[in-house]
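User: Second chain of the day. Same drill as before.
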Amino acid sequence: VYLEEFATNGNVEVFKFFASEIDRNTSMRDYITKENTIKAMYLAYFSLTNYYIVKSEPEMNKGFADIFMIPFNPYVEYFAIIEVKYIKREKDKKADTKLIQTLKDEA
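Assistant: Same format as last time:
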């Protein structure tokens, strides 16, 4: 249902929901390869839809996107470019907050 809401209405809750599910269902060992394990989870989940063709690391104008979701269905109005980032936890909570804001600004 969530992915349908994104495809038809642009509702980004699917990405928030899936991120929280990944956080809830993974352990520290899943992050040994940094973002690669998490990216694989996103690819597997988003590939199970009839709404999108999902590409990993497609070449874009000035680089590569981790995941690119191209509408497959002609009724889908929204596409997605997903960049997965691994942020090592800092002892200083303010440093985490600043780094997260910097990454959001770059997006």
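Residues 51 and 73 are 5 Å apart (CA to CA).

User: Great, on to the next one.
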